[in-house]
Write a structure and sequence with these properties.
Layout: H1 2-5, E1 10-12, E2 23-28, E3 33-38, E4 47-50, H2 51-60
Antiparallel strand pairs: 1-2, 2-3, 3-4
Length: 65
């Protein structure tokens, strides 16, 4: 799955308040995979979600303050 994100374009979250809270997201359209990583460590670990899992996360509102 990670290989599907290797060439993906990463986007910084609009919810990142400042340099200490930067999250990036990438979408692999063909495989419907969503990757999430810390923008300060782009070579570090990546959380990988299916498109369905990502949709549920966004719909849950758990990430809102």
């Amino acid at each position: 799955m990670i290989n599907n994100l290797r060439d993906a374009e990463w986007f910084k979250s609009s919810r990142s308040a400042d340099a200490s809270e930067c999250v990036e997201v990438a979408f692999a359209d063909r495989s419907r995979i969503v990757g999430v990583r810390d923008s300060k460590d782009p070579g570090g670990p990546v959380l990988v979600f299916s498109g369905e899992q990502w949709d549920r996360f966004l719909g849950s509102g758990v990430w809102r303050r």
